[in-house]
Amino acid sequence: MHEGFIGVFDVGVGGLSVLRALQQALPMEAFWYVADQAHFPYGREQDEKAILHWSDGIARFLVERGAKLIVVACHAATAAALQRLRMRYPQVPFVGVEPALKPAVMATRSGVIGVLATEATLRSQRYVHLVRRYASYVKILSDPCPGLVERIEAGDLDGPGVRRILRRAVEPMLEQGADTFVLGCTHYSFVEPTLRALVGPEAILLDSAPEVARRVQEVLFETGRARLLPRFPQGTRYFTTGDPRRFAQQVVRLLGEDQSVSVHRLVWQEGRFLARVRPREIPMAVTPSSAWQAMAVPA
Ligand code: DGL
Fold first, then answer.
1. 154 Cβ neighbours under 8 A, 6+ residues apart
2. Closest CA relative to residue 170, chosen from 183, 160, 158, 159
3. Which ranges in the chain are annotated with CATH 3.40.50.1860?
4. Does the domain formed by 5-97+211-298 have CATH 3.40.1160.10?
5. 13, 58, 186, 211, best to mutate for ligand 1 pocket (most atoms within 8 Å of CB)
6. Which atom of ligand 1 is nearest to the CA of 184?
């Protein structure tokens, strides 16, 4: 039976939509989720070099602590870093996330597909190649939905601002006949109900999370890494490079985790990420920041 955990990372809360699919598909596995909130957003603020730099720091942290597989639960980081991470850490399989264009091409009846993704994803080589591969069969319309990840990260999933951004993006797509919409950013999964209300019940909405979970299952079995019997209840450890208390609240809100969710803070020190772990479990609400001690998390 394989020990070790599955590492999952994103720049913020978006990857929690992928984590949710993984937890459902693989209840016996342990997960470590890292949110690089100190460098949020990757999609607009960071160039490819910076995204690669921070993704590499997180991957190294996870590999050194015993990750048996790493899921890059961010489209922007997948586009900027996945190939290089695979080369740098060949001992660990990586699974990335990519806009579900292939299923969209198979699902559309009108031949018009709308893709909602961040600027970093839309301008990446990976996406350009993907479109080139399928664009001869269908018409692909893309929109970066400026400001949407920021609102989702702030906890707004259906306010007037979110509806305005989505309406501005999808109305021209609907006018041109789009019947299938691809969620090309892991944050956008959390506004799927709001999007659904705008595009109507007949439209097809495609999220990459279920496909990522299926691929992770496959890789775990193919490489003999699956945990076949639970020895003790598996769970998820959370880390953020931002504010742990805020992130704990975001996890509770978006995943409905119970109140005991605790989040460790990752700090960048001497060219690598280190976890600051609290010396003992104390409720998040009363954790004084002075209770954080800088030390590496044991493998
Ligand atoms: N969740 C990230 C993705 O899937 C994007 C967030 C950001 O804008 O950096 O691309």
1. none
2. 183
3. 5-97+211-298, 101-207
4. no
5. 186
6. 4
pLDDT in tens, 185-228: 999 999 999 999 999 999 999 999 999 999 999 999 999 999 87
Task: Indicate the top mutation candidate among 8, 9, 10 to test ligand 1's pocket, ranked by most ligand atoms within 8 A of CB.
Answer: 10
Compute the distance between CA of residue 17 and CA of residue 175 in angstroms, rounded to an integer.
Answer: 29
Distance 15 CA to ligand 1 centre (A): 8
| pLDDT tens digits along 174-186 | 999 999 999 999 9
- What atom of ligand 1 comes closest to residue 73's alpha carbon? 4
CATH class of segment(s) 101-207: alpha beta
Q: Among 257, 276, 277, which residue's Cα sits nearest to residue 267?
A: 276
Quickly list DSSP for 192-240. Answer: HHHHHHHH-TTSEEEESHHHHHHHHHHHHHHTT----S-SS---EEEEE
C-alpha to C-alpha distance for 166 and 188, rounded to whole angstroms? 10
From residue 34, give the alpha-carbon distance in Å to each of 38, 82, 107, 140, 251. 11, 16, 33, 32, 12
Per-residue confidence band for 137, with pLDDT thresholds at 50, 70 and 90: confident
Residues with active-site annotation = 74, 185
Q: How far apart are CA 185 and CA 150, in angstroms?
A: 12
Cβ atoms of 126 and 79 closer than 8 Å: yes
| Phi/psi of residue 262, nearest 5 degrees | -120, 145
